[in-house]
């Protein structure tokens, strides 16, 4: 990718965003406006259903099916599988966003269907347990256990051939979980190696636990603390519910930039980064580590002037259609260039 020198300038709103704000009275929604997690959950579920309905139905999917799987503490979670009409394709495991507290299978339904129907992937959509009912590290453990299940059942139940590609992907908190899973797989190999990580607007390190050497470059949390959709108030609500014990927030299962064995075993990685997002610089720093320090192949798509998760809240924007299409093309790039 072309090196971006001035990350702060990416916060400047676009003309399309300004026009959108005018059309809705000048005030964009902010998850921080909700008083609690319960009220957020209702809103996000309806928003994601509306987003999926905004796009054309995807062809080429043979079967969608829900499965109950058992995770390490004996609890059961649901995974939804998508099997393409033609068997023997790549495998993808998807983790939804929502600050580890909200969201569900509907969050990534559109992406799952696109990867299955358009790219021929067998896809596993993970409904991990949410906080505050299930605090850290429940989400990370559930996603790893579900990924182990996917790898173990890839060639049988899922009719897949992960030697053709094995992608982990997620949005926001799901991007965090995808990075956590790809790092766990670095230290504890799966039945098939992960060949690509797709990180969409990922949360990669708690802002109070940044590695010292990267702090000068991590400006977006402060710069965009009053941003639309994901403000500082919203992030505080999420982290206080998911990791109520502040001493645990530096744990690599949350703050991936602190991974104890480093990042040298990471696969080819694709990033989607929003310019007016508090999480922006975490993604840029991590991408630079992979590409510049470790020689790992990366691809980056940036959406200047747009806030965290804009496409899910405003699916009718031209930029939203581009983000969704980029997600498919980025996954396709991972499959063509992936290397564990």
UniProtKB/TrEMBL annotation:
Which SUPFAM superfamilies does the protein's record reference?
alpha/beta-Hydrolases
Instruction: Specify the Alpha/beta hydrolase fold-3 domain's residue ranges.
Output: 93-311
Q: Which domain of life is it from?
A: Eukaryota
- Does the record bear rRNA processing in its keywords? no
Question: What are the recorded GO MF terms, alphabetically?
Answer: hydrolase activity
Which Pfam families does the record match to this protein? Answer: Abhydrolase_3
- Claim: Hydrolase is one of the keywords in the record: yes
Record keywords: Hydrolase
PANTHER family (UniProt xref): AB HYDROLASE SUPERFAMILY PROTEIN C4A8.06C, ALPHA_BETA HYDROLASE FOLD-3 DOMAIN-CONTAINING PROTEIN-RELATED
Q: List the protein's name.
A: Alpha/beta hydrolase fold-3 domain-containing protein
The organism named in the record is Cryoendolithus antarcticus
């Amino acid at each position: 990718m072309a090196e971006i020198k001035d990350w702060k300038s990416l916060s400047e709103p676009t003309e399309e965003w300004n026009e959108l704000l005018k059309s809705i009275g000048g005030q964009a929604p902010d998850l921080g406006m909700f008083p609690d997690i319960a009220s957020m959950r209702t809103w996000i579920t309806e928003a994601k259903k509306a987003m999926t309905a905004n796009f054309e139905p995807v062809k080429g999917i043979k079967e969608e099916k829900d499965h109950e799987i058992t995770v390490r503490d004996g609890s059961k979670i649901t995974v939804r599988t998508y099997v393409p009409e033609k068997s023997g394709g790549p495998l993808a495991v998807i983790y939804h966003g929502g600050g580890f507290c909200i969201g569900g299978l509907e969050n990534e339904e559109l992406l799952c269907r696109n990867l299955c129907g358009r790219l021929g992937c067998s896809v596993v959509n993970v409904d991990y347990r949410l906080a505050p009912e299930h605090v850290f590290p429940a989400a990370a453990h559930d996603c790893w256990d579900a990924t182990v299940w996917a790898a173990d059942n890839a060639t049988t139940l899922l009719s897949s051939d992960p030697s053709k590609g094995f992608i982990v992907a997620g949005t926001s908190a799901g991007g965090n979980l995808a990075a956590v899973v790809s790092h766990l797989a670095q230290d504890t190999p799966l039945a098939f190696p992960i060949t690509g990580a797709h990180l969409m607007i990922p949360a990669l390190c708690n802002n109070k636990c940044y590695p010292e050497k990267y702090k000068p470059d991590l400006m977006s949390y402060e710069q965009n603390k009053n941003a639309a959709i994901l403000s500082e108030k919203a992030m505080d609500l999420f982290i206080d519910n998911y990791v109520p014990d502040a001493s645990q927030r530096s744990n690599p299962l949350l703050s991936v930039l602190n991974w104890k064995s480093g990042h040298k075993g990471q696969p080819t990685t694709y990033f989607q980064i929003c310019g007016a997002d508090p999480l922006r610089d975490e993604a840029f720093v991590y991408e630079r580590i992979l590409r510049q320090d470790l020689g790992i192949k990366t691809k980056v798509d940036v959406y200047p002037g747009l806030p965290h998760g804009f496409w899910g809240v405003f699916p009718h924007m031209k930029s939203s259609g581009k983000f969704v299409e980029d997600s498919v093309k980025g996954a396709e790039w991972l499959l063509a260039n992936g290397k564990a």
